Amino acid sequence: MHESSRNAAKVGSGERRYAGCRKDLTGGLCIETACWGLVRKERKKKRKWHSLIDKVWNWRNLNEAWEKVKQNRGAGGIDDVTIDEFERNLEQNLNEIQRLLRQDRYVPKPVKRVYIPKPDGKQRPLGIPTIRDRVVQQALKNVIEPIFEAEFLDSSFGYRPGKSAKQAIEQIETVRDEGHEWVVDADIKAFFDTVNHEKLIDAVAERISDGRVLGLIRAFLEADIMEQGQGRAKNVVGTPQGGVISPLLANIYLHYFDERMAELGFEVVRYADDVLVLCGSEEEAEEAISHVKEILEELELTLHPQKTKIKNFSEGVDFLGFTVYVSHKVPRKEAVRKYKGAVRRATRRNLPINLEMVIQGLNPVVIGWGNYFKIANVNWLYKELDGWTRMRLRAFKEKRKSYNSNRRILNAFLRNLGLKSLSSLLNPGW
C-alpha cells in the first residue's frame, strides 16, 4: 500500500471552479460566487452554516436557478407543466415559490417515475420532478454546493463543477503509469435506490445546521413516487436519479468513503457511484476489496458480488465508456454499438425527409460521440466509422441497401451538404 495518498491532500479544489461565475445584469455576483466567497473565508474553521434558507429563496438565486432548469429542458413532471408553460407565468411562479419557502410551507410534488433501457436489457428507474421542484432543487444546490465542494477530494470526478470524465480517465492513466497495474472495479449495487435517508441527512448536517434547509432536503428525499399503473408510493430509501440535487447528494454521501480510502492510502478514482481502486499488486487489490466492502457496509451499501472484480490493465479496464489498457485506451465495444445504433436511427431509409435534413439530425450524434471519445486511440476507428456512416447515407439516398463499394454519392458531395465526420474532430483542417 502507498505510504500516503495524493487524494488526502487535494481538498478544497472547488475554489477555482467558481472563479469565472458570471455576474448578473446589475453587476452583482451570482449566488454561487457569493456563496463560495463565504465558504472560502470560513473553510479552515470547519464551521457549520446556520442561516442559509434566505439565500435559497433569494430572488436573484431563484432566477438563476430557473435559467439553469430552462437550459437543461426536459419533460414535465406529474402536473404535466412544461418548461414553456412555466415560463409564460414565470414571475407569478417564482413569487409563489419564494412565498412558500419564506413561510416554510413548500411541499414537493410526487416524482414521476419512468424507466429507460440499460445495455444489459434491464431497465433503470428515472425520477422526473416537476419544473417547480426542479427550480427549488437548483436554488438549493446553488447555495449548498460550494460548501461541500470545499471539502470534496480530488478523487471524485462525477457531477462536479470543473470536473469531467476526461479528467477521471487521465487520472487513471497517471496512477497506472506510476506502477498501479491492478484495479478493483467496485460495483455498488443499486446505489441511488439504497441511499439511507438518515445517514445522508447526518452527512449534510455535518456542515449545515439550518433546520429549514435540512428539512427541505428531507422533503425532496421523501417525496412520493408516482408510477403509471402503480399509483402513489412512499419513498423511504434512495434518492431518485433525475433530480437536480441527487448527484450532489450522492457525492456528499460517498465523501465518507473517499476520505476513509484516502486515509488508508489507496488510490481511488470515483465518478458518482462508479469506483476504481488502483493498486500496485494483486495482493493489495484483495486487501482493497475488503476495505471497500467494510466502508460501504457502514453506509448501508453493498458491493455487487458478480460485477465487482479485480483486473489488470493488460486485459483492459472498463470505465466511463472507455477500455483502458497498459499503454492505450479505446472506446468500449458497447459504446461503438450504441453509436452505430444512433446512426441507424438517424438514417432510416423510410424517414420522410431529404438527405440534407438527415445530415442535420445526424451531425449532433457524430459531434457529441466523437468529442467524448477523441481522447482515446481512435484514428483507425474513426475512419472506419466515417466510412460506415457514409454508406448509411448512400443507402438512404438510394432507398436501398448499400455497400462500401457504392460510390455513386461522392464523399465531397456529403461534405458539401454539411456532414461532419469523426475524423474531422481529430484533424480540424480535414
Task: Tell me what you see in this structure.
There is one protein chain. By secondary structure, this protein is of the alpha+beta class. The chain has 3 domains: 48-150 and 210-229; 154-196 and 237-315, Alpha-Beta Plaits; 329-426. It is 48% helix and 11% strand. The protein has 18 helices and 11 strands. It has helices at 6-9, 31-42, 53-56, 59-72, 83-88, 90-102, 131-149, 165-177, 191-194, 197-205, 211-221, 246-263, 282-298, 333-346, 355-373, 379-398, 411-416, 422-426, and strands at residues 111-117, 123-128, 182-187, 225-227, 231-233, 267-271, 274-279, 309-312, 317-319, 322-324, 329-331. The strands form 3 sheets. Strands 2-1-4-5 form a 4-stranded mixed sheet, with no helix packed on it. It has a 4-stranded antiparallel sheet with strand order 6-7-3-8, sandwiched between helices. A 3-stranded antiparallel sheet has the order 9-10-11. α14 runs antiparallel to α15. The chain is globular. The two termini are 48 Å apart. The relative contact order is 0.11.
Quick structural overview:
By secondary structure, the chain is of the alpha+beta class. It is 48% helix and 11% strand.
Strand adjacency order, main sheet: 2-1-4-5
List low-confidence stretches: 2-28
Mean pLDDT: 89
Helix content: 40-55%
- What is the string of SSEs from the N terminus onward? HHHHHHEEHHEHHHEEHEEHEEEEHHHHH
What is the rounded distance between the termini? 48 Å
**Biggest β-sheet description:** 4 strands, mixed
Classify the secondary structure makeup into a structural class.
Answer: alpha+beta
Number of domains: 3
Rg of Cα set: 24 Å
Tally of alpha and pi helices: 18
Q: How does the overall form come out from the CA principal axes?
A: globular
